[in-house]
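for ur thesis appendix - MerR family HTH transcriptional regulator. copy paste whatever u need, i formatted it the way the template wanted (i think)
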Amino acid sequence: MFKIGEFSKLTQVSVRMLRYYDETGLLKPAKIDKFSGYRLYSTEQIPILNKIIFLRDIGFNVSEIAIALNYWDNTFITNQLENKRLEIENIIQIEQDKLSKIELAIKDIQEEKMSIHYNVTIKSIPSYQVLSLRKVIPNYYAEGELWKEMCAFANENNIFISSNTFSIYHDTEYKERDVDVELCALVDKIGENMNGFVYRNTEPIQIMACTMVYGEFKNIASAFISFANWLQEHNQYKMTGKSRQIVHRGPWNEKNLDKYLTEIQIPLEKI
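the 3d part is after this line
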């Protein structure tokens, strides 16, 4: 048995942290000397301490570490690590978005480019016969996975879908998470609805405001701001219905991000 200072030196873990693990219940001393009150540790506790340090270093909090220690086996810990990997990837994506915004802001300041003006045109959009897939997805970045699901379904069921595709956003507000999106692909014939895939005719839109966005998808945000300014100047219109988005050039047919081309469509009505 080792006193806490000795155990600290052998394991290269500070006494402060050993006391903290004791207080939180992650690693209690193997024994408390009833005469001196010293915390005593055994070599059998070293593997447990190593697990605690490993999990702590990859971002597990105290409660997560406690659960992992109580249910430690290869299957359980693999699932826990996979969940943590996905959590960290999401955090990285969020931080990368922040960096992108900083870099864009620096570029705009250096170029004295305060804003970009997008041209807005008015169209009449007919009804389309489509194969649709509507789901609530974690965020807008997850839409690409939904398109993969659509393509896989079409291939598996020998369904020819046109390259004319678009997305309908059913939320009445901007959502940071749990986005209600419907993918639509034009088809020349109606099939059987199954597994969330539905054949239907989309609603015709008499007055649709459309604007083209060049470059990365992050540019879409500034296009909406530009549209807000346009709508304020053309106050005979107001927004109504569900917005749509058509990606004319994207990851599947264009490698250069600067050449991406996205069309934003927003239904309007006259006041």
